[in-house]
């Protein structure tokens, strides 16, 4: 059954909506979702026990709200997901600039339209997305952009007096009537423009310049802000903050699993059915972001966006895709060396402190990757004996491998390294796995040993013995020395 197209049909269908505000509509639909156990905000991960309960409380309280958090914390996504709490469709006077309710019109244009056409007044239907208005606050935003102003051109074309309501130019806020108005980066809005929001937040109406008319708008206002920007670029004036009902703090993923889930959802990795991403590689890429947020050389006030692991993973897959095409491999499997090839997607994602500036963004990014590899490798191979592999390098062995080396070459060149394949299998290589999967696991083991400084890697020699590691006695020498110094009591004496 189609929706009524005229005011008369709307009346006959019994769809004369009660005087219910947008906030009451969102509250009612939220309660229905809670009772049904339905997902509240699809696509927003990692906030189930922290941010989302506070958002729910704000909506149930019919509050306007502000999300405070560093960059890349899904603030805008969370605000846009609020449209899922709106009704599937609402009737408006067709042609109305401010989505007038057919039974309670605000604008003079809609009132005259209904008075002239009566039950034949055309009706349009708005979807939830059409009821969401978003604006990025910038210093050049004017009060006319947000609230409205006199439109002399409209007055001249229509032959109206400048004092007539028909000459009003409606700003974005009135155009969000009967919907949600989102203002991103609120501190960037000039203080005098923030003052223009006082009335709508407290009294629920606005007054457009030059008209003695107050428009009682029905709108839910939501804002975002970076708390560190209060002193960097601007600030939210105190009377405005006082009028916002709920202030909610967002955060970065608290666990590696949460971060991996977010990056898996957001990153474009499935270029085809022939892309395979090992779990250890996902953990390493996510670990880079966690390492950056802990590193004292990275500016904590700026934050490290969740976009860092997303773009890094996409670049790593692209590097593997390029290698697969060159070597005519059908399966695309990124390696950890591809993460190093993704440095361009890392260096622009964090701001450095003075100490970090001295080393440079690229070197810091390499250090962060190495730290993430070391953490993931230690977690998977804790207690594993890697001496057989390191001894091979200590005796002069080297592997000239790079991110451009084909998978078959990696498997062939490393075949003589005793114990390496066994460690690679422990990284999660299934029986009968193709060469690209095996090569990725081998690369993980080698990079993990590099991160632990048991072997070294250079552009000239590839993987080789670490100078400090090469000076260590091998296992046979250690055993012989222990036998020589064994005490009569059976206790061992160790050299410091």
CATH-defined fold name of the largest domain: Rossmann fold
* Number of discrete domains: 2
Write out the strand line-up for the largest beta sheet, numbering strands in chain order: 4-7-10-1-11
**Which secondary-structure class do the elements indicate?**
alpha/beta
Unreliable stretches covering 5 or more consecutive residues: 469-496
Largest sheet: 5 strands, parallel
Kindly state the mean pLDDT as a whole number? 88
Number of helices: 24
| Molecular shape | elongated
Mind telling me which CATH architecture of the largest domain this is? 3-Layer(aba) Sandwich
Helix content: 40-55%
Q: What would you report as the Rg, rounded to the nearest angstrom? A: 31 Å
CATH class of the largest domain: Alpha Beta
End-to-end separation: 87 Å
Would you count the extended β strands for me? 13
Attribute tags:
5-stranded parallel beta sheet; two-stranded antiparallel sheet; Rossmann fold; 496 residues; 13 strands; alpha/beta
Quick overview of this protein structure:
The protein is of the alpha/beta class and about 500 residues long. The chain folds into 2 domains: about 5-250, P-loop containing nucleotide triphosphate hydrolases (Rossmann fold, 3-Layer(aba) Sandwich); about 255-470, no CATH class. It has 24 helices and 13 strands.
Structure description:
This protein is α/β, with parallel strands linked by helices. The protein has 2 domains: 7-249, Rossmann fold (3-Layer(aba) Sandwich), CATH 3.40.50.300; 256-470, no CATH class. Helix content is 43%, strand content 10%. The protein is built from 24 helices and 13 strands. The protein has helices at residues 7-12, 22-36, 51-60, 75-80, 108-117, 143-146, 152-158, 172-175, 191-195, 198-202, 229-232, 238-243, 256-266, 279-294, 307-326, 336-341, 354-359, 361-381, 387-394, 407-413, 420-426, 435-451, 467-470, 475-484, and strands spanning 65-68, 90-93, 123-126, 132-136, 148-150, 168-170, 179-184, 206-207, 214-215, 219-225, 246-249, 455-458, 462-465. The strands form 5 sheets. A 5-stranded parallel sheet has the order 4-7-10-1-11. It has a two-stranded antiparallel sheet with strand order 2-3. It has a two-stranded antiparallel ribbon with strand order 5-6. The longest helix is centred in the last third of the chain and has 21 residues, at 361-381. It is elongated, with a radius of gyration of 31 Å. 37% of the residues are buried. Residues 469-496 have low confidence and may be disordered.
């Amino acid at each position: 059954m189609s929706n009524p197209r005229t005011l008369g049909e709307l009346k006959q269908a019994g769809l004369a909506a009660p005087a219910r505000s947008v906030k009451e509509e969102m509250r009612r639909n939220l309660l229905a979702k809670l009772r049904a156990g339905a997902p509240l905000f699809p696509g927003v991960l990692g906030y189930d026990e922290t941010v989302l309960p506070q958002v729910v409380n704000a909506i149930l309280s019919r509050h306007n709200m502000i999300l405070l958090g560093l960059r890349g914390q899904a603030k805008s996504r969370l605000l846009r997901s609020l449209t899922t709490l709106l009704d599937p469709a609402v009737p408006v006077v067709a042609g109305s600039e401010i989505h007038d309710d057919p039974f309670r019109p605000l604008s003079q244009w809609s009132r005259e339209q209904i008075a002239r056409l009566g039950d034949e007044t055309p009706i349009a239907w708005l979807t939830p997305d059409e009821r969401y208005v978003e604006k990025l606050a910038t210093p050049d935003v004017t009060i006319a952009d947000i609230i409205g102003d006199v439109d002399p051109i409209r007055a001249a074309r229509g032959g109206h007096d400048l004092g007539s309501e028909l000459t009003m130019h409606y700003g974005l806020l009135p155009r969000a009537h009967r919907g949600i108005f989102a203002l991103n980066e609120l501190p960037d809005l000039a203080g005098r423009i923030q003052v223009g929001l006082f009335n709508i937040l407290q009294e629920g109406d606005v007054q457009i310049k030059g008209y003695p008319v107050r428009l009682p708008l029905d709108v839910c206002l939501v804002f975002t802000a970076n708390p560190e920007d209060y002193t960097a670029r601007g600030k939210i004036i105190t009377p405005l903050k006082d009028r916002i009902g709920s202030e909610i703090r967002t955060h970065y993923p608290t666990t590696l699993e949460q971060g991996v889930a977010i990056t898996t959802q957001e990153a474009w990795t499935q270029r085809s059915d022939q892309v395979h991403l090992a779990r250890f590689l996902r953990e390493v890429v996510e670990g880079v972001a966690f390492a950056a947020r802990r590193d004292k050389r990275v500016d904590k006030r700026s934050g490290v966006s969740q976009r860092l692991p997303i773009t890094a993973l996409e670049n790593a897959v692209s590097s593997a895709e390029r290698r697969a095409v060159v070597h005519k491999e059908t399966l695309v499997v990124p390696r950890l060396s591809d993460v190093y090839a993704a440095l361009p997607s890392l260096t622009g994602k964090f701001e450095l402190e003075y100490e970090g500036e001295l080393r440079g963004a690229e070197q810091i990014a390499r250090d962060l990757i190495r730290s993430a590899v070391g953490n993931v490798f230690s977690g998977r191979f804790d207690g594993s004996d890697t001496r057989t592999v390191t001894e091979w390098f200590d005796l002069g062995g080297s592997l000239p491998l790079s991110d451009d080396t084909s998978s078959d070459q990696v498997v062939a060149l490393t075949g003589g390294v005793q114990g390496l394949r066994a460690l690679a299998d422990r990284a999660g290589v299934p029986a009968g796995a193709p060469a690209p999967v095996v090569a990725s696991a081998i690369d993980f083991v080698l990079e993990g040993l590099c991160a632990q400084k048991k072997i070294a890697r250079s552009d000239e020699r590839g993987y080789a013995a670490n100078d400090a590691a090469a000076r260590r006695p091998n296992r046979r020498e250690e055993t012989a020395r222990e036998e020589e110094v064994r005490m009569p009591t059976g206790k061992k004496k160790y050299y410091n």
